[in-house]
């Protein structure tokens, strides 16, 4: 990634520290991804993107900024990308998934904050992530307390807009979220100087729906008994989709899905018959958090589905494309987004229904419910998730971890024993 040094300098990054991050990434990518056998050829796209993750896409974003476009950094799947696109803006995910950024986050946040929040704040304050330097504005949301308070610190030296996510899913909450989306649109118009028309929003809704359909096609292939892609590769695809241009993302995912569908027809599987099929549920796995997938898939299991925001919650449910006025479109957006079952809602029984449905659809042998340390929301839902799965006769293992590698061997022992018993 040495070609990008000048760009990083211009972004005001801490080059010395950033070098340390760049040094560990190739080994991690090699160990987790390139070591796998019989991978789909179409993964070459994601191998390239991840090997130059702080180079290729940031350079594109800077180029777009030179043409006058604005970049918006987001932290939650509740922020509607469609509206950003309709204002001719570009969205990029910002959630941090590396232990590397945690100490810089801990310098200003309580240690008892979840690693996702600590890493995100650390990536900004430590000046070691180009995406955090590039974004013209951050878009936060009122989901968990950790994020809400962290946004106050993050927003000290970069424009920060917060969307007020409802905490319940009554009719009036759906209306409230619609109003919140309309306000977001107004702010985007002012910030970008571009007008959002029903035509532009309709086009943007179509673009993101196509991206969702493409991601869903790849996931559909993971339902097959003949498993054409590993969980690690599917996770990488999903993680990168938060950063990539949505049209290219759809193209690449469709290209991958074409190959996977052919593999299923040809009986090509990445694991031996009888490998135990695992569904993971819980807190999101932001890039480059591949720890759990890697342990499971090197312990005799295969991850076939993630009931996570870096998984099914990201692409399930489409926005109604038949609406023709902005008011109707905002409502259609609200209705779709409010179907996402995040643990910040109460009650959140829809998530249990989703998990039970996905267990059947993906022919799952066992569920691993994994929470990031100090995420009280998903940790509390562990109680009802575990009970529902036990009642349905589905084996479940609950785990709690963070980004550090210190518990890797302990996790390996527990996961190995769980898979053996399935
Ligand atoms: S819709 S899951 S992306 S809020 S893990 S930071 S909840 S303490 S990430 Fe999330 Fe939106 Fe919900 Fe999805 Fe807080 Fe928990 Fe940390 Fe979390």
Mean pLDDT reading: 97
| Spatial gap, N to C terminus | 43 Å
- The unreliable regions are none
N-to-C SSE string, H for helix and E for strand: HHHHEHEHHHEHEHHHHEHEHHHEHEH
Q: Give the percentage of residues in beta strands.
A: 5-15%
Percent helix: 40-55%
- The radius of gyration is 21 Å
| Broad shape | globular
Quickly give the structural class.
alpha/beta
Number of E-state strands: 8
Query: Main β-sheet, in a few words?
Result: 4 strands, parallel
Q: How would you describe the oligomerization state of the chains in this entry?
A: single chain
Tally of alpha and pi helices: 19
Strand line-up across the major sheet: 2-1-3-4
Identify every distinct bound molecule in the structure, by name, code or SMILES.
Answer: Double cubane cluster
What does this structure look like?
This protein is an alpha/beta fold and 422 residues long. Helix content is 54%, strand content 10%. It is built from 19 helices and eight strands. It has helices at 5-10, 15-34, 44-51, 56-66, 81-86, 102-106, 115-125, 130-134, 145-154, 171-192, 198-221, 231-241, 246-266, 291-297, 312-315, 326-337, 349-361, 376-391, 408-421, and strands at residues 71-74, 90-93, 137-141, 160-163, 276-282, 301-307, 366-372, 396-401. The strands form two sheets. The chain has a four-stranded parallel β-sheet, sandwiched between helices. Strands 6-5-7-8 form a four-stranded parallel β-sheet, sandwiched between helices. The radius of gyration is 21 Å and the shape is globular. The mean pLDDT is 97. The structure holds Double cubane cluster (BJ8). The site of Double cubane cluster has 20 residues, from helix 7, helix 9 and helix 18.
């Amino acid at each position: 990634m040495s070609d990008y040094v000048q760009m990083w300098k211009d972004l005001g990054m801490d080059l010395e520290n950033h070098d340390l991050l760049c040094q560990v990434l190739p080994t991690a990518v090699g160990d987790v991804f390139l070591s796998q056998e019989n991978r789909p050829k179409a993964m070459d796209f994601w191998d390239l993107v991840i090997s130059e993750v702080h180079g290729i896409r940031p350079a594109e974003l800077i180029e777009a900024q030179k043409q006058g476009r604005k970049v918006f950094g987001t932290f939650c799947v509740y922020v509607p990308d469609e509206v950003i696109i309709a204002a001719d803006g570009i969205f990029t995910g910002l959630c941090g998934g590396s232990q590397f950024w945690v100490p810089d986050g801990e310098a200003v946040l309580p240690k008892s904050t979840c690693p996702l929040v600590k890493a995100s704040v650390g990536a900004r304050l430590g000046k070691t992530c180009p995406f955090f330097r590039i974004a013209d504005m951050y878009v936060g949301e009122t989901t968990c307390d950790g994020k809400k308070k962290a946004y106050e610190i993050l927003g000290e030296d970069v424009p920060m807009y917060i969307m007020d996510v409802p905490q319940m899913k009554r009719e009036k909450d759906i209306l409230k979220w619609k109003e919140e989306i309309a306000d977001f649109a107004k702010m985007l118009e002012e910030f970008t100087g571009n007008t959002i028309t029903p035509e532009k929003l309709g086009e943007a809704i179509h673009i993101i729906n196509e991206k969702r359909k493409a991601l869903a096609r790849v996931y559909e292939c993971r339902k097959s008994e003949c498993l054409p892609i590993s969980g690690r590769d599917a996770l990488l695809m999903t993680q990168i989709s938060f950063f990539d241009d949505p049209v290219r993302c759809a193209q690449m995912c469709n290209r991958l899905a074409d190959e996977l569908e052919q593999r299923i027809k040809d009986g090509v599987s990445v694991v031996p018959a009888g490998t135990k099929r695992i569904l993971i549920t819980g807190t999101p796995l932001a890039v480059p958090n591949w720890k759990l997938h890697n342990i499971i898939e090197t312990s005799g299991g295969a991850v076939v589905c993630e009931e996570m925001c870096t998984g099914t919650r990201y692409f399930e449910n489409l926005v109604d494309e038949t609406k023709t006025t902005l008011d109707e479109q905002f409502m259609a957006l609200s209705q779709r987004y409010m179907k996402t079952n995040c643990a910040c809602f109460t009650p959140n029984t829809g998530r249990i229904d989703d998990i039970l449905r996905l267990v059947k659809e993906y022919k799952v042998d066992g569920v691993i419910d994994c929470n990031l340390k100090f995420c009280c929301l998903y940790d509390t839902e562990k109680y009802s998730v575990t009970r529902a799965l036990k009642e349905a006769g589905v084996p479940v293992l609950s785990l709690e971890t963070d980004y550090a590698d210190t518990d890797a061997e302990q996790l390996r022992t527990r996961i190995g024993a769980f898979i053996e018993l399935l």
